[in-house]
Structure formats: structure tokens, C-alpha cells
Design a protein that fits this description.
Helices cover 41% and strands 4% of the residues. It is built from 19 helices and six strands. With 434 residues, it is mainly alpha-helical. It folds into three domains: 129 residues, no CATH class; 128 residues, Orthogonal Bundle (Cytochrome Bc1 Complex, Chain D, domain 2), CATH 1.10.760; 131 residues, Cytochrome Bc1 Complex, Chain D, domain 2 (Orthogonal Bundle), CATH 1.10.760.10. The strands form three sheets. A two-stranded antiparallel sheet has the order 1-2. Strand 3 and strand 4 form a beta hairpin. This is Gluconate 2-dehydrogenase cytochrome c subunit. It holds the Pfam family Cytochrom_C. Its EC number is 1.1.99.3. InterPro entries: Cyt_c-like_dom, Cyt_c-like_dom_sf, Cytochrome_c-type_DH, Membr-bd_ADH_cyt_c. It comes from Paraburkholderia piptadeniae.
């Protein structure tokens, strides 16, 4: 390759990295208002923006069991946004799920969690969206849910059954740090919206730590949202408070790295939280007991690394790992740092549901933006290089190497995710440049 062409390709690659992401990445101001900080904690921009779109202008397509819906414009435009909303209107939408015109919002808007936002924080958020967010005139898109399933009146009954509309109440049995963490996790951070399993009517099975199903992990959109409870193998049981803080701050620690929708949370929210808030979240999460019935059997074994180095492993998947994966994750499975995570003892690898492992091998990872800089390395997609059986073999091998003891992945598991997921636009561009 001639040097000028190489330089040109590098320039194109850099521009793609800087211009593309799964959603808008909101730059941090040096003097953010309280409302701006709270909007970051709530990660409003991730859902109310589209790739390369203007922040908070809406239009993001979201799949639901009933059909596709689109996030709305929440800029202060009076015609297409929320510029005509009073504080009471804003409150009703954010904490109760009812728009100004009276139509009920689908709970893709996490108002069951936002119901816990305090009055003062809600007022600060309102002030931010009315005065600090740039006005964008952009019409909202109608949902793609067909009649009669698009009727919204049943949501009134759903809300009565599943939404506790009271703001967060301080738990007297815990200190201020724990309560701050609980408030952020349960309310603004709406962690349960992804990390708590859903019932038959798509409700979160639990809304706080009083139920062991809260934050016990869930599967959505082809990803497994991790167990955030005290399970040693599949949860945060082996993580210290400092390691949780490092994950929120850096997007990676010695156990795991951000992936899937959590990349948006990291890019726009968790890294910008104050150290005291990151610590409070860690304190709260470490207080959660393990989900019942979990088996904690992981102990690291160096036998896998030794066998790989000798080249005497013939088990399906081992050869693919040696040639395609070891350069980033290491023969020892412990990763190479700088965002190249450990696979040994990784709770996402040990999860009962292998969806995230399969999805990452198939489609790769989107970019992580840390302190305004896109990451140097990321998981490459192998959708085009490996067939379903090869991916099943290497995923099974990873889940059963270095002392990992997780279930096998089948060819059918991979085929199902291949059919229902796609690489990001960014990953497609990168593959074409190879």
C-alpha cells in the first residue's frame, strides 16, 4: 500500500470514529447547571437523539413487542417539542407518563423510575430543558403499532397496577451515601429499566431492593443486561466498590467492559457523574444480596493458557480463539487492558444467557468515547468471517475456558441473533475499509 493511500484511509477512519456513534454524544460543559447534570444522570440524550442528529430532537426508533415507536422531540420548540409545557405539564410527562395533550406515553419512557425524582430535581430539569437546550424544530414520528394495539387507554390501568408515583423516600436504616446511591439507581439512572426482568405485561418485576429480582439481569434487544446484585460469578459479588467506580468512570475494569446499550450510558452519563455519586452508586449496588439459586463456582485455572501456548487443544472453537481472539484477550483470558477486557471470570461470559457473547462476536462493539476521545481498540465484528457453527463453537469454548463454567452455545442460538441483529453503520464502514 502506498503511503498517501494509507494516510488517506487513516484520515477517513478517524473521521468515522469522531462522527459516528449509536446515538449523539453530548459534550460536557465546564460549568454545567444542576439541571444539565441531572439530565446526564438520567441519560436523556441517548434515547431522544439519533445518530448524527441534534441532541434531544427525538426520532430514535425503538422496538417493542407491539411494534416500533419513536422517541419525541424534547427541545424547547413550542410546535414540535416541549416549549409550551408548564412545570406541571413537564411533571406529568416525566413522573406519570402523560403528555400535555393527555395521551399516555409508552413505558419505553422510563417514567416508572422517574416517578422517584424529587420535586427540586424535577424543577431543575425543567429549567434546563426550557432555557439551556438548543431549540430544534423537528416533527415527531408516529408509531408503527397497528390498530387496535395502538390504543393507549389500557396504559392507565397498567400505570395503576405497576407504577408507584411517589418520589423516593429516604430509608432511615441506611446512611446518606447509601440513600443517594439508591436514589440514583432507582430513579434518575433508571437502571432497573434494563437490568430487571419483565413480567407478562412487560412490567419490571421489581422496583427496589426489597425484591431480589430487582437488578437481577434481563435480556433485551439481543443483549443480556448484567446481573448487578451480589452473585459472585454472574453479578458484582467479586467486584469491590472501587472497581464499580472504575467501571462507571472508565467504562472498563479488571472484570468487564461496557457493551451494547451500556456504551451509550457510559458515553453520555456515568463517566460524567461526580466521584461522590459514582461512589454512592457503588455502595448501594454492593449492598444488594445475590439472586437466589445462583451457583458461584468460578476459580481461575491456568491450564487453558498452557494448553493454548502448546497448541495441543483440539476442542472446537480453540483454533478460532487462538487466531482471532487471543491477540486482544490474551492466551490467559485476562485481557490486555486499555479496553480489551478479561474473559476469564467475566460475569457477562458466565451469564446463563449467552446473548451478549454471541452478539459481540457477530456484530462487534460500538465506540466508547472517554473524556471526549474515541477508543483505540474495540471488538471487531465476525459476522462475515465466521459461520453460525464457528461462532457457536468459539463462544462455547470461551464460556468453558480458564475455569469458566457456563452452558454451551448452539448453532440455532447464533442463527437467531444473526437474523435479528445487524452491525452498526460504523462497523460496516470499517469492514469495507479493510
Amino acid at each position: 500500500m502506498k503511503l498517501p493511500n494509507f494516510i488517506r484511509i487513516c484520515a477517513v477512519y478517524a473521521s468515522v470514529m469522531l462522527a459516528m456513534s449509536s446515538h449523539a454524544v453530548l459534550a460536557q460543559s465546564k460549568s454545567e447547571s444542576k439541571g444539565a447534570y441531572l439530565a446526564r444522570a438520567a441519560d436523556c440524550v441517548a434515547c431522544h437523539s439519533v445518530p448524527n442528529g441534534k441532541p434531544f430532537a427525538g426520532g430514535l426508533k425503538m422496538g417493542t413487542p407491539l411494534g416500533n415507536i419513536f422517541s419525541t422531540n424534547i427541545t424547547p420548540d413550542r410546535q414540535t417539542g416541549i416549549g409550551s409545557y408548564s412545570l406541571a405539564d413537564f411533571d406529568r410527562a416525566v413522573r406519570k407518563g402523560v403528555a400535555k395533550d393527555g395521551h399516555r406515553l409508552y413505558p419505553a419512557m422510563p417514567y416508572p423510575s422517574y416517578a422517584k425524582i424529587s420535586d427540586s430535581d424535577l424543577a431543575a430539569l425543567y429549567d434546563y430543558f426550557m432555557h439551556d437546550v438548543a431549540l430544534v424544530h423537528q416533527m415527531n414520528r408516529a408509531s408503527e403499532i397497528e390498530w387496535p394495539m395502538n390504543a393507549r387507554w389500557p396504559l392507565a390501568a397498567w400505570n395503576a397496577l405497576f407504577v408507584d408515583s411517589k418520589p423516593y423516600t429516604t430509608e432511615a436504616s441506611h446512611d446518606a451515601v447509601w440513600n443517594r446511591g439508591a436514589y440514583l439507581v432507582q430513579g434518575l439512572g433508571h437502571c432497573g429499566a434494563c437490568h430487571t426482568s419483565r413480567g407478562l405485561l412487560f412490567q419490571e418485576r421489581a422496583l427496589d431492593e426489597s425484591d431480589s429480582r430487582f437488578l437481577g439481569g434481563a435480556t433485551l434487544d439481543g443483549w443480556t443486561a448484567s446481573n448487578l446484585r451480589g452473585n459472585a460469578d454472574t453479578g458484582l459479588g467479586r467486584w469491590s466498590e472501587d472497581e464499580i467506580v472504575a467501571f462507571l468512570k472508565n467504562g472498563v475494569n479488571g472484570h468487564a467492559s461496557v457493551f451494547g446499550s451500556m456504551i451509550d450510558v457510559y458515553n453520555n452519563s456515568s463517566q460524567f457523574l461526580s466521584e461522590s455519586d459514582q461512589h454512592a452508586i457503588a455502595v448501594y449496588l454492593k449492598s444488594l444480596t445475590a439472586t437466589p439459586g445462583g451457583k458461584d463456582t468460578y476459580t481461575y485455572s491456568d491450564a487453558t493458557a498452557k494448553a493454548l501456548q502448546r497448541g495441543d487443544i483440539t476442542k472446537p472453537g480453540a483454533a478460532v480463539f487462538r487466531t482471532q481472539c487471543a491477540s486482544c484477550h490474551g492466551m490467559d483470558g485476562k485481557g490486555l487492558g486499555d479496553g480489551l477486557p478479561s474473559l476469564a471470570g467475566n460475569p457477562n461470559v458466565l451469564s446463563n444467557d449467552p446473548s451478549s457473547v454471541i452478539n459481540l462476536i457477530l456484530n462487534g462493539a460500538q465506540r466508547v468515547v472517554r473524556k471526549g476521545m474515541p477508543d483505540t481498540y474495540r471488538m471487531a465484528p465476525f459476522r462475515l468471517q465466521l459461520n453460525d457453527q464457528q461462532i457457536a463453537d468459539v463462544a462455547t469454548w470461551i464460556r468453558q475456558a480458564w475455569g469458566n463454567q457456563a452452558g454451551a452455545v448452539t448453532r440455532a442460538d447464533v442463527g437467531k441473533l444473526r437474523a435479528s441483529t445487524n452491525m452498526s453503520t460504523e462497523q460496516v464502514v470499517i469492514l469495507k475499509m479493510r
